Description:
The structure holds two protein chains of two kinds. Chain A is an alpha/beta fold. Chain A is built from ten helices and eleven strands. The radius of gyration of chain A is 19 Å and the shape is globular. Chain B is mostly beta strands. The two termini of chain B are 12 Å apart. Strand 2 (18-22) of chain A pairs antiparallel with strand 4 of chain B.
Amino acid sequence: MSNDQIFISTDTPPAEPAALVDDFTPTLITQANHHLCPGCGEPIAIRAAMEAIEELELARSTITVFGIGCYTAFAHNLDVEVVQALHGRAPSVATGIKRMLPDGFVMTVQGDGDMVNEGLQEVLHAAARGENITCLLLNNGVFGETGGQMTTTTTLGQRTKTSIEGRDPHQHGHPILLSDLAATMDGAAYVARCAVNNAGNVARTKRYITKAYESQMAGAGFSLVEILTMCPTGWFVDTLEGPDYLQDTLAPVHNIGELKTPLVQQ
Amino acid sequence: MSTITVRGTVVIDVEACKGCDLCIDACPPRVLEMTNHEVNTRGYRYPRLLAGCTGCQACAQICPDFVFQVYKYDTPQELPLGESSER
């Protein structure tokens, strides 16, 4: 079938006059090669975060704090300052940095195993204190780095390595919906949840991240953007099924949308 | 053989691709197609472009390995359609 189809050469830029509308990587990602699995959603989310930093011209004042997870290896590819925190403790490290450097732009990048399992109190206390930092939660519902074990954000009935029959509320408890929890805190200024399972949601992710950054730069208080990401390796599904699996499994429980927007209310 | 209006094109960094297929489903005009047997140096299949790209950047936004560079033509081009694309 494919023999009679005409493929267009994609080795070099076109000879005809054309405008470059999207380059390989944003300038803040220095090296595109990374060690994350095929079909992973985390590079897509981090790309959106870096593009937003670039567009708001925050690159020189940015200090990011990374938690422990697959995405930690991606820190080597970034052209912003990165501090490595203990498992789950990134919001507390970011608190210290922001209090010492109030003019700096401080954000954390954490996974669900890091932020919700290991460091739930850190992020909730930071939200309650109204620390002027931005936290990004890359939520895929499993411990991807260790091979797909259940986390607290795993949805009921979701099959993981440590809940083979699906998550059972009597045995494993109910999922913690972190953004909904953080949105109830008075210190939280901006809380939103989005996903990277299709191009429209990626654009929305970048919009939410930009709003969270703007809220920090305005000194409004704690901001959190939860990003649902694909983890086909940890979910044991095909890479092509990843976006649909996210839509069917995580998205119905972790509802996508803005949960708290003080900028609108003002 | 009929022609199709092409508003954009992409440059694909084949060696960076990990063959995850996300771009195939993300492409609105569905003009990306995965190779069947050809693989890059690391052994992954990679996408190829058929006529009909609109330069919408959906592939570049969804790609976890940043293999796409998207161009939009100043004036739309007319390219011949492959036989199996004529339905």
